[in-house]
Write a structure and sequence with these properties.
There is one protein chain. This protein has about 350 residues and is of the alpha+beta class. It folds into three domains: about 100 residues, Pleckstrin-homology domain (PH domain)/Phosphotyrosine-binding domain (PTB) (PH-domain like, Roll); about 100 residues, Orthogonal Bundle (Arc Repressor Mutant, subunit A), CATH 1.10.10; about 120 residues, Pleckstrin-homology domain (PH domain)/Phosphotyrosine-binding domain (PTB) (PH-domain like), CATH 2.30.29.30. The chain is built from six helices and 18 strands. Strands 4-3-2-1-7-6-5 form a seven-stranded antiparallel sheet, with helices on one face. The longest helix has 20 residues. The relative contact order is 0.10. Major protein kinase C substrate of platelets. Keywords: Acetylation, Phosphoprotein, Repeat. InterPro entries: DEP_dom, PH-like_dom_sf, PH_domain, Pleckstrin, PLEK_DEP, WH-like_DNA-bd_sf, WH_DNA-bd_sf. GO terms for molecular function: phosphatase activator activity; phosphatidylinositol-3,4-bisphosphate binding; protein homodimerization activity; protein kinase C binding.
Amino acid sequence: MEPKRIREGYLVKRGSVFNTWKPMWVVLLEDGIEFYKKKSDNSPKGMIPLKGSTLTSPCQDFGKRMFVFKITTTKQQDHFFQAAFLEERDAWVRDIKKAIKCIEGGQKFARKSTRRSIRLPETIDLGALYLSMKDTEKGIKELNLEKDKKIFNHCFTGNCVIDWLVSNQSVRNRQEGLMIASSLLNEGYLQPAGDMSKSAVDGTAENPFLDNPDAFYYFPDSGFFCEENSSDDDVILKEEFRGVIIKQGCLLKQGHRRKNWKVRKFILREDPAYLHYYDPAGAEDPLGAIHLRGCVVTSVESNSNGRKSEEENLFEIITADEVHYFLQAASPKERTEWIKAIQVASRTGK
């Protein structure tokens, strides 16, 4: 009987020989992790046994790479994976940790009930707290702030974070709020923006988070992007990057010239409506952008030559300038989600 598939999808994996980062189709089984060069491959390129393994997340061994986690096997072999965004990393980490725990206890992997379990008063669920902070109505308001002739888009100040934690009754006082905010920062739920907040993170202070109106921070999957640990890279964003991110993840994209398919990380923004695509191995700048205003997006059953395609879950974007883009999702559900999200953005964005 084949092991149960718990989770699968694209992740970027660091090679064990040449140390290069490449996108892989990764499958989490009850007893291990298989990774494939392509989703359609029949044989995995490698297998990581989970029995006796340990997981580290967040893994901060690579300064400029976000959303990385590490699996260390009993033979002390390290395997590094990078997700496309924070929630995706956390979902993989939760399932891998549970799979390891089930192996240790001789149990079968099973999803928990969606009902809330009773939490101890002193227990802080940073993941749940992060989602509350991002709530569009009751969460922390993202602002465009200016300092030292720079504009920081979609960010907020350190004292606003502490104010929110106290007013939301997540903490009893500002000192306790500072400890929680520091934990959120250390776990990657918050990122520093600007010289002051970055200096605090890089320094040896007890609390790397600053309860200060001049210290700026941002959510890692918001509309604000900058190169970490470099104060010269907090620049004014172009108009097309000012939109709020409504969806992101990896898809296969067909090239316009060679017609070959490659994995790309896509970030969908609305108002203005753009779909940017990146090298998932970690490039900071997008490889290209699709302006979605007035576009048409539909599922397709044939490729650009009009012949029946062997690939599944294809969809096409036709821009207002009549440029055609062919993309492939990992499942019918994922394809439907992308099509709906793009349709909404194309109607509401600039």
